[in-house]
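Note on ligand handling. Small-molecule inputs were canonicalized before submission; formal charges were left as drawn, and no protonation-state enumeration was performed. Where a ligand contained multiple stereocentres, the stereochemistry in the source SMILES was retained. For 2-acetamido-2-deoxy-beta-D-glucopyranose, this procedure yielded the string shown in the input block below.
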Amino acid sequence: MTRYSAVSTDADADAPPSPTSSSPSLSAASDLPLSQKLIKVIGNVCFSFFVLAVLVVTVVAVTYQPPDPWLSSSAALTNSLSATLQNSTFRPDDSVLPTGEDLVPLNSSLIPVNSSSSPSASSVPDLVDSSSMTASEEEAASESCDPDKPVNCSDPRVLNAVKAFNQKAFTRRSIIFLSYDTPVPGSKPGECDVAWRFRNRKEKSWRRYRDYRRFHLAPGDNCTIEVSGVGKFRSGTNAAKPRPRTRSPASSTPVRVPDSEINDTIPTVGSESEFKRGKYLYYTRGGDYCKSMNQFIWSFLCGLGEAQFLNRTFVVDLSICLSGAYNPWYGKDEEGKDFRFYFDFEHLKESASIVEEEEFLRDWRRWDKKSKSGNKISVRKVPTYKVTPMQLKKDKSTILWRQFDGPEPENYWYRVCEGRAAKYIQRPWQAIWKSKRLMNIVTQIAGKMEWDYDAVHVVRGWKAQNKQVWPNLDADTSPDALVDKMTKIIPPWRNLYIATNEPFYNYFDKLRSHYKVHLLDDYKEMWGANSEWYNETMELNGGKPVPFDGYMRVAVDTEVLYRAKTRVETFNNLTRDCKDGVNTCYRQIKR
Ligand SMILES: *[C@@H]1O[C@H](CO)[C@@H](O)[C@H](O)[C@H]1NC(C)=O
Ligand SMILES: *[C@@H]1O[C@H](CO)[C@@H](O)[C@H](O)[C@H]1NC(C)=O
Ligand SMILES: *[C@@H]1O[C@H](CO)[C@@H](O)[C@H](O)[C@H]1NC(C)=O
Ligand SMILES: *[C@@H]1O[C@H](CO)[C@@H](O)[C@H](O)[C@H]1NC(C)=O
Ligand SMILES: *[C@@H]1O[C@H](CO)[C@@H](O)[C@H](O)[C@H]1NC(C)=O
Ligand SMILES: *[C@@H]1O[C@H](CO)[C@@H](O)[C@H](O)[C@H]1NC(C)=O
Ligand SMILES: *[C@@H]1O[C@H](CO)[C@@H](O)[C@H](O)[C@H]1NC(C)=O
Ligand SMILES: *[C@@H]1O[C@H](CO)[C@@H](O)[C@H](O)[C@H]1NC(C)=O
Ligand SMILES: *[C@@H]1O[C@H](CO)[C@@H](O)[C@H](O)[C@H]1NC(C)=O
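Structure output:
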């Protein structure tokens, strides 16, 4: 109710005049009997207008407020993302690439705050039924207290021991355990493989990842079972497969399963009447095509934001063009890249009303042809961005078709959201997450370092070469300067991940006498021809292998960087040069 009244003043300008006089009638009635009478006379008429006004207000409220309850500060989010993606930095960059999942603040009440609490206190109920566990526990305890008997992995005490162990070992590394599968035997007696799902506290999305490890267990005193050793990340290969399919666990080749939780199939519209009932906003390709991915996101979210403002379904072109700047060794723009290589289409489907372009065009043609004249699908073509979203708000056409035919920069999608429209349209940042397939690589890299690493972000590339705009950057990121700086910040022999656009692999060798250095290229096998990622992207790509391109590299580098315990940045930490060049530091701080 408070929200309603707060917004209603805004809405009054557009709403019919009657609701203005009817809604404050309660307080106005005592001092102004005349208006009270008037209200009684036209009360019935007013009521219907009032209902209409409530509807309008609801639209306003819906379009102005982010729908996610856990999105507590959309303004902060928008500011930080805008700062990264503004037009001044559209130049394909070596910088990190934050997306929605990095910046949406999580609702802290939903995260278990006290990580040192009891092992069973996870926020999500375990898959293993705990009530049946306690019943059989006593039974099992009485029969298998014999310390000479090998441990039986189905024994509930095994899972309890593993849970307690994990809770102790990993929570300081930002891991939150969500659920466990029932342990299965490992390769030898005394070994059990246990799989579980977890999320990383440093990732602000709700996505779950899987780990499965091999545990060495031994009967302890007093009928307990104790963990005497644990394997590395994803070492428990017998537990790799989800439980229902239990076949030949003795087979020696590790069985890897693709992420069965990803569902980024293209949704279909359904029937003709369903299609015609919908309202669509369709943007044809404009000048943004083949520009930097930052510009793509900035423009795409403008379109999606307009669609939400107009309460329409946005038509999404899944075929994107990767700017040649992301592959300097190749240099040419590459068309036909699937949106799903880079972004989480499943999440987009869930967080916004969208339809895929090819599907949409096919249906449109099919059902437009079938309709006799008079029953055609109504289309309004909008030739220029100068027609504002506010002017289109009342349009009833089934399809609003924005065309971007002019010369650059008239034909950029994001022009739609400039000027006065910026006040009305909110870019739905939280709709854009990185591809889960890329995030699985991130999880594997961080997992191989046991989530216990520090990271430094070293920006070089074209910025380091431009001495006029970044006078000190090159020197400040030289191998000797790096050793000098890093040894003052990070203790020796820590795992040190270096996120960088420096192409020369051996550039960081001097750091190797102080740290265990990790670079993205050390993990090549994760996208190599034998990887899950390779298989899954190939499937999306109609059976053709997908190269791991420059944009994917930056996306993975960014996320590994974000999971580090201590993070050292180039700008601010390594150099006093400003991120956007001489004399831009003030602006960065102001934001
Ligand atoms: C938005 O559109 C859908 C269908 O297109 C409709 O059911 C819904 O009532 C609309 N919402 C508002 C607030 O107008
Ligand atoms: C880029 O942003 C600046 C202000 O930050 C603005 O003056 C300029 O017109 C913008 N350029 C384009 C192409 O939108
Ligand atoms: C977190 O979410 C709960 C309900 O989901 C809500 O009551 C609470 O106000 C939210 N807290 C914050 C800080 O957003
Ligand atoms: C966490 O829980 C333990 C006991 O369960 C308690 O001693 C400790 O103070 C708690 N820490 C916080 C931060 O609440
Ligand atoms: C382990 O225990 C389960 C029941 O708790 C039993 O069905 C199974 O046969 C046992 N396995 C071994 C190897 O003793
Ligand atoms: C075993 O139980 C006894 C009595 O309950 C206790 O004193 C002893 O500390 C326990 N030992 C271990 C290793 O928990
Ligand atoms: C994937 O999601 C679509 C909706 O987008 C749903 O219709 C389909 O059943 C899902 N497929 C699986 C295997 O869950
Ligand atoms: C990838 O696919 C090939 C052929 O289908 C299969 O042999 C291989 O095991 C798969 N690799 C992974 C990691 O899933
Ligand atoms: C990096 O610089 C920022 C801003 O000056 C500072 O807050 C942060 O502590 C520095 N990080 C390290 C690891 O020194």
